[in-house]
Amino acid sequence: MRRVAIIATASGCGKTTFARALADRLGVPFTELDAIHWQAGWLELDAAELRRRVEPLVSEEAWVIDGSYRGKLGDLVLAEADTIVWLDLPRSVWLPRLIFRTLRRIALRETLWNGNRESLLQALAGPDSLFRFALRSAPRRRQRYPSELARFRVARLRTRAEVNAFLRHAVR
């Protein structure tokens, strides 16, 4: 494995933590696409600018990339990966993690990408609510991903034990 894309069924699956650990284990660069996509003030990069910034990254010899932004990048990241790791953990794992992580970030006023901070309003209310997005997108992704990812080499990890085993057995 030299080029690995990490995707998840929902926020809170541990995608970023896993991607960082895997990049460290493989000795390759790590990139979090959220850090590129989300600009100051929670402004999103448009598709053309995001593509311009990501294309050089995926052309590198080795990497672990957290995310795919398929809505804006299509299969750019996935097509360049030699392995896609799909974290498909059950809701009973990711929802408590998402709640805890979000509340911690809000309480501690953690700075995310480009100076952004989460708020309770963002997490709970409105059409862009983090929790609403996660709860809506998880069943759709679980249904769509098997056919959409069929042409790629995918490791679908469904339990914490599988995630830990994958990391233990990843070699440079």
What does this protein look like?
There is one protein chain. The chain has 172 residues and is an alpha/beta fold. The protein has one domain (3-169): P-loop containing nucleotide triphosphate hydrolases (Rossmann fold, 3-Layer(aba) Sandwich). The protein is 52% helix and 15% strand. The protein has 9 helices and 7 strands; from the N terminus they run βαβαββαβααβαααβα. It has helices at 15-26, 33-37, 47-58, 70-73, 76-80, 91-108, 120-124, 130-148, 160-169; strands at residues 3-8, 30-32, 38-39, 43-44, 63-66, 83-87, 154-157. The strands form 2 sheets. It has a 5-stranded parallel beta sheet. It has a two-stranded antiparallel sheet with strand order 3-4. A hairpin with a 3-residue loop joins strand 3 (38-39) and strand 4. Helix 6 (91-108) crosses helix 8 (130-148). It is globular and about 40 Å long.
What would you say about this model in short?
The chain is an alpha/beta fold and 172 residues long. Helices cover 52% and strands 15% of the residues. The longest helix has 19 residues, at 130-148.
Q: Top keywords for this entry?
A:
single chain; 172 residues; alpha/beta; 7 strands; 52% helix; globular
Query: Strand-residue fraction?
Result: 15-25%
Oligomeric status: single chain
| SS element count, helices | 9
Unreliably modeled segments: none
Helical residues, percent: 40-55%
Rounded mean pLDDT score: 95
Read across the widest sheet, the strand sequence of neighbours is 2-5-1-6-7
* Topology pattern, helix = H, strand = E: EHEHEEHEHHEHHHEH
- CA-to-CA gap between the ends? 7 Å
What does the overall shape look like? globular
Provide the CATH superfamily. Answer: P-loop containing nucleotide triphosphate hydrolases
CATH top level assignment: Alpha Beta
Strand count: 7
Major β-sheet annotation? 5 strands, parallel
